[in-house]
Design a protein that fits this description.
Elements: H1 14-18, E1 26-30, E2 34-39, H2 50-61, E3 67-73, H3 79-82, H4 85-99, E4 103-109, H5 113-122, H6 128-131, E5 134-135
Parallel strand pairs: 2-3, 3-4, 4-5
Antiparallel strand pairs: 1-2
Helix pairs in contact: 2-4, 4-5
Length: 136
């Protein structure tokens, strides 16, 4: 994909700059009070790229000053996603780094058995304050 601006290592995910379908963590809506982010792992070409997803999310999250809500869409989340538990571990690491201080809710929609298995595997590593924000 041709982009109309130059790549900036501080503000752009390198994979998504050239292929916007690489990762899935995007601003869905913003109003005066809060921001909504959306994730659907099955729609990401590089769903297995733990370090890249971490970097992508860090770039998106580092400047959030408002309260924010994260919608995780489990549509079509399957066995192939379960093969990469490092992705979930890196996301938990990022959420535990202080960048989630303004996170007010995590809404999980379109749950699948595989997504529930992944969450069960990660559950004890998710900080209690983050667990309390998860709505199924």
């Amino acid at each position: 994909m041709k982009n109309n601006r130059d790549f900036n290592v501080y503000t752009d995910c390198d994979r998504c700059f050239y292929d916007p379908q690489s990762h899935s963590f995007h601003k869905l809506h913003e109003n005066n009070a809060e921001i909504y982010y959306y994730t659907c792992p099955s729609k990401a070409r590089h769903y297995y790229d733990a370090d890249g997803i971490y970097k992508h999310m860090f770039i998106e999250m580092k400047d959030i000053q408002k309260k924010w809500v994260w919608i995780i869409d489990g549509d079509d989340y399957g066995i192939k996603h379960l093969r990469y538990p490092s992705v979930g571990k890196k996301i938990v690491e990022l959420l535990d780094s202080g960048l989630s201080d303004n996170l007010v809710q995590i809404i999980i929609i379109n749950e699948t058995t595989c997504l529930n298995l992944a969450l069960k595997y990660l559950w004890k590593s998710i900080p209690t304050n983050i667990r309390k924000l998860i709505l199924f």
